[in-house]
Amino acid sequence: IRLWGWGDSSVGRVLALQILQECEFGQFFLAAKPGVCPKDRLLCNTSIPGSCRMDFNCEDYLKCCTFACEKKCMDPYEEPCMLPFKRGNCLTEVQRWYYDFEQHSCRAFTYSGCHGNSNNFLSPSDCMKSWSLS
Question: Where do the WAP domain residues begin and end (predicted)?
């Protein structure tokens, strides 16, 4: 008599391969991408759910950094306050603030709730603090 087990079927082999890939991928997560995140310039009493948890949640060379009280994918070689505002492409409408590098002032814009960039602040005072310390 032969007893059936997971290893005896193609489903078992697929599951074993899936587990092996997840373990190998998990080890890959331990390494950080090159570059240094910009220093967070705000003292945050609360944190906002971010778009990443670690570097490898971010595309290409972007790093998962804490900036403006939330974790977000950022270019480690770019100054956030020099970026143009980016509305994003989701359906939410939230008022946020960005630093207008050409006008040297903070301005309001409507953020869609996702896929913006790091020049995105909750309040005009957060915006002012961030660029004045850069």
Answer: 30-77
CB 55 within 8 A of CB 33: yes
In this prediction, residue 21 has a pLDDT band, given cuts at 50, 70 and 90, of very low
Q: Which CATH number fits domain 55-132: 3.40.50.2300, 1.10.1040.10, 3.30.420.360, 4.10.410.10?
A: 4.10.410.10
Burial class (CB in 10 A: 0-12, 13-18, 19+), 84: exposed
User: 111-127 as b/e, with b when 16 or more CB fall inside 10 Å?
Assistant: bbeeebbbbbbbeeebb
